[in-house]
Amino acid sequence: MSYTLQIKPGPQYYDYSIGAIDTVPDLLKEYHAKRVLILHGTISWEKAKKFYEKTISNPEFEFEFEQYHGECSYNEAKRISSIIKEKNIDFVIGVGGGKMCDLTLLSTSYTSTPYGVTPTLSSNCAPWAALSVMYKDNGMAEGQSAHQKHNAAFLITDPKLVIDSPERYFVAGIADTIVKWYESDLVTSQNEIKNYPLIQMGRYAAHICKETILKNAEQAIEDMRNREVTEAFYTVSEIVIVISGLVGGLAGKYARNTAAHTVHDALSAVLPGLHSYLHGEKVGYGTFYQLALENKYDEIDRLLPFYKKLGLPKSLTEMGVYPFSESDMKRIVELMNSKEKIHLLPLEINEEILEKTYVELEDYLKDKIN
Predict the structure, then answer these.
(1) Which bin fits 88, alpha (ψ -120 to 50), beta or left (φ > 0)?
(2) Interval 10-53: pLDDT, tens
(3) How many Å apart are CA 134 and CA 271, to the nearest integer?
(4) CATH classification at residue 297
(5) Is the pLDDT score of 340 beyond 90?
(6) Are residues 128 and 188 located together in one domain of the fold?
(7) What is the arrangement of strands in the sheet containing 154-157, beginning at the earlier edge strand?
(8) CA nearest 332: which of 291, 273, 257?
(9) Could you give the 3-state DSSP secondary structure of residue 15?
(10) Percentage of the chain surpassing pLDDT 90?
(11) Distances (CA, A) of 117 to 2, 36, 284
(12) Is residue 30 a part of any domain in this protein?
């Protein structure tokens, strides 16, 4: 393996604390911002608006508000970038979930406009990572991500805002984070690259993701139900938003994603029946697929009780989309095999092996779940 590494570690400034959003005007001043666009969702902005009262009432800035159309699509990014140009916006703040953060990044990349994000959920590492997971306007996945060479000027949010979000998104974020270890383990342990300092740091971040979540996730979820910002909730939510993003932010493509996210991309692009499932829920299944591809069924057995306690979907059969039709299976494995990231694994991988893994995994899970 040839070693090439381009690093986009994360936002230039980060603050996740009670009252942190009140400091946004200070950051805007550093960027000499005057005309600011707040890009937001619906429910997310209803909850976040009270945290932004001090900022939007500041007379030093002119604020424009734009509600996005629900997807991080190329068309939506072009629409937002047109608004940025037409209204002479010199700073954009994205307030919302993962798709909102991804859309803010992509839209501003078209206009070279600095931006910040305030995630209202702890559901993935989108606020941290310098890439956008792309969807079509109808919600189906594009099966690809858009990569940029810059990142946010700031990531600022408040645990009191994040805790007031749906539990299901938090659980999905936990699933999307624990996978960081499983996707990076084989790749970063290869002799050719394992001793490089940034690889070691990314690998350690991935290890923190797995160990902290297995230890603290159940308590964090219980605390979220009680709307108590405890150490467990703060720690796990920060792991989801930040440390999971640092895995790829430090070790680049070698620790960003491999088989599990390839499964997500392919299934989401081919199967409309999965549209109702969250990103992290689909990636959670991808973790099992990754382990099956590596023939680590004992680790699947270890994770199954954890999945059951958290209420995560455990198989494609359970999600109602398996068995695949012959044509769907062909499209899925062709798309997976075309992705560079799955071939980072030091394994023999081809369409036949990818198809066989689905069949064997679903058969295995059927016996374990029932």
Answers:
(1) left
(2) 999 999 999 999 999 999 999 999 999 999 999 999 999 999 99
(3) 16
(4) 1.20.1090.10
(5) yes
(6) no
(7) 14-16, 154-157, 115-119, 91-96, 35-40, 62-67
(8) 273
(9) strand
(10) 92
(11) 35, 13, 25
(12) yes
Q: Would 27 be classed as within a structural domain? A: yes
Q: Print burial letters for 96-122: b (CB count within 10 Å at least 16), e (below 16).
A: bbbbbbbbbbbbbbbbebbbbbbbbbb
How far is Cα of residue 302 from the mean position of the Cα atoms in its chain?
A: 24
Residues 149 and 132 in one domain: yes
Give 324's DSSP letter: P
295 and 322 housed in the same domain: yes
- Percent of the chain whose pLDDT exceeds 70: 99
Q: pLDDT band for position 3 (50/70/90)? A: low
Domain CATH number, residue 96: 3.40.50.1970
d(CA 312, CA 3): 36
Could you tell me if 132 and 212 lie in one domain? no
In the chain, the number of structural domains is: 2
pLDDT digits (tens, 9 = 90+) for 141-164: 887 888 888 899 999 999 999 999
Rounded to whole angstroms, the Cα distance separating 218 from 198 reads 31
Q: What is the pLDDT of residue 2?
A: 61
- Please state, in angstroms and rounded to a whole number, the distance separating the CA atoms of residues 359 and 173: 27
User: Domain range for residue 194?
Assistant: 167-369
Domain boundary among 162, 194, 225: 162
